[in-house]
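note to self — DONT lose this again. spent like an hour looking for the file last time. sequence + predicted structure for the chain T wanted, 130 res
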Amino acid sequence: KHPQHFGPLPEATHRGRGLDALCGDDIEVALIVQDDRIVDAQFFGEACAVTKASASMLMFWLIGRSITEIPEAYEAFQALLANPKTPANELLGELNELQPVGAFPTRRGNACLPWQATLEALAPALGQSV
């Protein structure tokens, strides 16, 4: 109901959009990156409760991280959602709390949408194409 790090970030250096046409989620992730570190992160848009919760937790987690950590962390997050027996991953911290969402395959996409928008935003900085 009250997501953290929600709202525009006009001075963002990187932006990515997450869109799920099936459920209507449409969010934008805005990041400030300095010296390959995320110094601020916000998201905004319309989304379901799972997407908002995931985005809120992810934005908090991102601040202070090196951009090179993000792809590996996303792989760990996907593994966590894919298998309920996967042990908590220390790298993910509080994001481990989202593991029960993995029991609902249609909701996995909601939990992953903020990650995908983040990776889209960081793709040029990571030398990747979207």
